[in-house]
Amino acid sequence: MHDFVNTPLGWFHFITALISMLSGTYVLFQPKGTQLHKRFGYLYVLSMVLVCGSALGVYNITGDFGVFHTLAIAGLLTLVLGISPLFLKNINSKHRIFHLWFMYYSVLGLYAAFVSELSLRIPEKPSYSAVGITSVTVFIFGSIFIFWKEKTWKNYFKE
Fold first, then answer.
1. pLDDT for residue 59
2. How many domains does the chain have?
3. CA 118 to CA 29: how far, in whole Å?
4. How far apart, in whole angstroms, are the C-alpha atoms of residue 18 and residue 16?
5. 29 assigned to some structural domain
């Protein structure tokens, strides 16, 4: 079995990932637009920047820049696209729904990364097939959830 965490950077990555998972989950399942939503949302954004940034320095799985590093960059891009609509003053309110979509998929990517890590680290013989299967499963169920919640979430951005 691989060591779960074996460097200070690995511990930093692990702790910020836990903070991201907790704050991101809170934001998803609580009312939108409240002060708590905003506070936990900013905590999520900050911790995700740190998670994705630290992921770029972790090389103990493959020894090289690989798919997980590419996904960390994609995670940062999704995060930027998710937070941007809130800072654009002249954006039409109907386009603010992109905040919800990109932030939700940011959290979903974090969940997929979590199950991918478990798929690689828990078994005696890690399998990249298991990584793919678990990640796709997370995205399928997560996408079903977001389509189910979209109408409710759109109400937060009505004029």
1. 66
2. 1
3. 24
4. 5
5. yes
Nearest by Cα to 134 from 117, 121, 158: 117
**Residue of 69, 148, 79 whose CA lies nearest to 108:** 79
CA distance 7 to 18: 17
Return all residues near 135 (Cβ < 8 A) that are at least 6 apart: 112, 115, 116
Based on the number of CB atoms within 10 Å of its own CB, is 89 exposed (0-12), middle (13-18) or buried (19 or more)?
A: exposed
Q: Quote the pLDDT of residue 1.
A: 39
Residue 77 lies in a domain: yes
Write out the residue range of the structural domain in which residue 77 sits: 8-157
In a domain, 12, yes or no: yes
- pTM equals 0.81
Q: What's the mean pLDDT in 83-104? A: 82
In a domain, 73, yes or no: yes
Mean pLDDT of 38-56: 93
Q: What is the pLDDT of residues 52-67, one digit of tens each?
A: 888 888 766 666 776 7
**Structure tokens belonging to residue 84:** 């941007």
Neighbours of 82 (CB within 10 A): 23
Alpha helices in 2-96 (DSSP H): 8-29, 35-55, 67-87
C-alpha dihedral sign at 65, 71, 77, 80: negative
Asked whether the beta carbons of 128 and 158 are under 8 A apart, the reply is no
